[in-house]
């Protein structure tokens, strides 16, 4: 009985994690409006925000490229990479 409850709890936790990670890109907020930012931030703050945004985009691009490379490697090895 206790094993059944533990298995159900683990499966529920996995489902929640998978659901959360899978939907993170879909729920991404729109980028901020540059005109609106001018009203609230100084020039140096806007430059810093823009630099951080570019840094985040570069990191996301690197992560996507790594994922794609891993998929290609898996397909070459034949161990079930996604198509």
UniProtKB/TrEMBL annotation:
Stretch list, region Disordered: 23-44, 57-83
Lineage: superkingdom: Bacteria
Name the UniProt record assigns to this protein: Uncharacterized protein
Species of the source: Glycomyces buryatensis
């Amino acid at each position: 009985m206790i094993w059944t409850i533990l298995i159900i709890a683990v499966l529920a936790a996995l489902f929640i994690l998978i659901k959360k990670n899978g939907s993170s890109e879909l729920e991404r907020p729109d980028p901020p409006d540059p005109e609106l930012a001018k009203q609230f931030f100084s020039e140096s703050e806007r430059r810093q925000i823009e630099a951080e945004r570019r840094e985040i985009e570069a990191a996301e691009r690197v992560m996507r490229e790594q994922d794609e490379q891993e998929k290609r490697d898996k397909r070459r090895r034949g161990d079930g990479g996604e198509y």
